[in-house]
Amino acid sequence: MSTSPDQNRLHRRTLLRAAVVAPAAGAAVTALDPAAAQAATTARHGGFDPESPRFTLAVLPDTQYLFDADSADPAPLRETFRYLVAERAEANIAFMTHLGDVTEHGTEDEIALAADTFRTLHGKVPYSVLAGNHDIRSSTDDQRGDSAYLAEFGPRRYASMPTFGGASPDGYNSYHVLRAADREWLVLALDWRVSDKGMTWAQGVLDAHPTLPAVLTTHDMAWSDDDGKAQLSDNGRRLWDGLVRGNDQIFLALGGHYWPPGRTVLSNDADNDVHVHITNYQDRYYGGAGMIRTYGFDLVRGVIDVETFSPWFLARDPDRRTSLEAETIELTGPVDRFTLAIDFDERFKGFAPVVPPKPRPASAVMPRGTVAYWRFDASGTTAAGSPGTPLADGAVVRDLSGNGNDLTVSRLHSSGPDALTWSADHHPGQPAHASLRFDGGKSPDRGAILTTGPQAALNSRKFTGGYTIETFIRLPEPFEGDHSWMGILSWEGRNGDAGKTTGWSPLEPTCSLNLSPERFLQFVVYPHAQDADPTSWSHALPVGRWTHIAVVNDGRRTVVYVDGSKIARNPTQRSTGIATLGKPFVLGATQFDERFGQSFYGWLGDTRIVNRALSVRDFLTGPL
Predict the structure, then answer these.
(1) pLDDT digits (tens, 9 = 90+) for 62-106
(2) If we measure between CA atoms, which residue out of 37, 17, 22 comes closest to residue 88?
(3) Cα–Cα distance between 597 and 445 in angstroms, integer?
(4) CA 98, CA 131: separation in Å to the nearest integer?
(5) Which of 237, 138, 154, 151 minimizes the C-alpha distance to 192?
(6) CA–CA separation, 605 vs 162, rounded Å?
(7) Which of these, 476, 484, 491, 414, lies nearest to 448 by C-alpha position?
């Protein structure tokens, strides 16, 4: 069966979402691929991956005009639900929440039809529903007692859902606990009018889950003018004063009821942002046509990407789509499609501070084949100093692998003490919580290096069976001065002396890791077995934050990873081993033409060399 252009477009949407949900690309050539383990995890959750740092919260606003007496038409909503089920794995949909006004009159017939429509999601996507003023007697609060709505959308409906945490004694308020992005999140679904008892219940739920980020959903929270600037309604002000502002956990508050949609950001009592959004499209063509809004949480990028679209119209043949259907497919205005920048760790630190990992002992990070491991805390040095203290010439950094590849410090170009100092700064995933601060530069030339001794075994290793070289670097921000072609690590010795004739220059070292003027990482190696110079190039490395670098060779070709992601410009040229010449290994610079050029400028952390190819999961950062 052929697909329409818009069906293809929908497919491309799912492909894009799949790309951001997938784990870091490119397992090392001999890696134990973690995909099988991940597949087992997602299978247990209906295709949803609770460990991925990217997930989707789907929000469904007022559907009342689709369930309006004898003019009811559940078809748009059924298509929305089919979309959520079909795309759960691709979009990593954790949950769906309805914002109230399920029906127009709240009659038994309307409620029954809506309840039957919602069964499309049962056992496939967990969800919450709350009562809007059209679903119950609008003059009442959550102490109203029995209703057609409660009979169908009360606690019994959610009892079998793994996310369901409980409901208030009246049955009109509920909460769910989701596991997504490898942590738990709380969703509160509150009635159209929450009584004082309901507010006390909601506070109790928050008190019972004090470390969970919370999303509050209710029907009447805020209203907006045509400019999209939201303001708290009277009921929203009551919720804000009585529940939201004093509970730092609540970072997102979602409501329907009013149109047009809008949004605003308010500051709570902890002086943190709370995003308040109105989502309602019942005034649009076909009562909103089952319009869905997706909140794409991305904890890697520190954003929530918001999109609004109608799966019912997207799935239609464009040749048979009316003009009103065409213009309602996807909404792209500033209150319908936008991105929220949120530093999740910073925003949540008041109630769920990130506990930094403890340093890991060297014995825990030296797998089979480790030939050298250096770190710059007390375990790895002869005289570790306090942060800012110069590391003196002649100081020794021990090779903790026990293979005797100790490093000795020396300064270049009569550099002063500040050319190399101790630092407590480190990559969050680094085993040792320490680093060295290099102040290499030009005009005047300055810098420092650490080199192995003349008899170190590492000097002559050829690595013909493969290798992994890892290090951590942080470039200063601002990145001031000319630091082009600065060296990070290398082996001394010219490739011309190793008999290589086809490289860029016979004076170039046989192996080096460098940074170009554009901050592109360059790894160039002259293999032991080939007359060639395969060179890998990265993208521009960031400044001001730590970066993990891994060079992995399986005995045939080399792949460079930056923060666990394979870079694009890895050569396919065969590369077996390293043409080492028995000369020292160097940290902090690259030797060229018997001289050391630009010394490193920035921080350098744990560095490890292993005599085989490691998988991404076995890198020094641990599982990514």
Answers:
(1) 999 999 999 999 999 999 999 999 999 999 999 999 999 999 999
(2) 17
(3) 9
(4) 9
(5) 138
(6) 43
(7) 414
